[in-house]
Amino acid sequence: MEIGMILITLSVASIGWYFADKLKLSAPAMLGSMIAVGVTNIFLDYAYLPTSIKIFTQAISGAFIGMQIAKKDIMNFRYLVKPFIFLIALLTINTFVMGILINKICGLDLTTTLLSCVAGGVTDISLIAMDMNADAGTVALMQTSRLVFVLLFFSTWIKFMTKNKSETVVDLRMQQNNVVNQTVIDRLIKTKFQRIIFTIITSFAMGYVGYISKIPAATMVFPMFLIVFLNCTTCICFVPTQAKNIAQLLAGALVGTSICSSTFSNLNKTLIPIVLLLISYWFINLIYGIVCEKYKLLDLKSAMFASAPGGATDMALIAADLNADLTKIALIQVLRAAYVVAVMPFLIIIFVKLFS
What we know:
Elements: H1 2-22, H2 28-44, H3 51-67, H4 71-76, H5 81-106, H6 110-116, H7 122-131, H8 136-161, H9 184-188, H10 192-213, H11 218-233, H12 241-257, H13 261-265, H14 267-294, H15 300-306, H16 312-321, H17 326-342, H18 344-355
């Protein structure tokens, strides 16, 4: 019976991915599968996926984040310490201020509202919400609203704000060397197929260690840190785009299984909070850009793209169209994503325990 429910859930998720891709939605594997499984589950109450799929999905998501951080990024971080710390301070404060405000407005539990306000990936934060027993459906709804808003609005907004600015940028002299000396294990794991299998198995193993440790978000954080270490010291790790898409498909389906009729019964309550949250992100983007430009931490265009709370890949692609500094933007965006996954869940747990 369970196998049948799993197959049906994954089939519906795949159909959702197909139509979302045809409609050119952002992150179609995630959003399409989530919408398809969630909507059908509201009426049929059938969706089911086992814990092993959740572990695999979180582990691959963590590995994919880890793969974005290379040796040169670690070396270059010292050039971006000040703007990075300033950004995460603003985003962290915003998470707690807006999370508490939304908690008071719509009556959702504090963990759910705080996770809804975290400036992370839809996939990552939705999976963490399931780990922390929050309302993953509501978190996904809020996170998706933020992502759509950023993709639709921020490129036009940044282009308007920087239209009269010169193309000169702050010289941070970022290093480009990313050479990793070959190790014994590099000589053992040479082909792309071997690297993929090694990365998947290693990530799943570390994800399982994180799962049994009962540490919040460890199923994603442990693989992420291991892959960062291996990616900076060897050349044996590789996560293909297909694996990322499959992880997003499974993540969307997992979130979809948590969506029921009560999720959308709160929609009228969450509409105003969503608007308030989006305004807060816009305000942070403006303040961050102005301060970074004034104190020569970053040029205005790079600062505004770096602080836009979208995906690192999405922001880099949009920034490329506007001739922004992709190196700085991508590095800050990736480090922000890592901070959100590795640190924010623990801060939220501590806060909820102290003040709820």
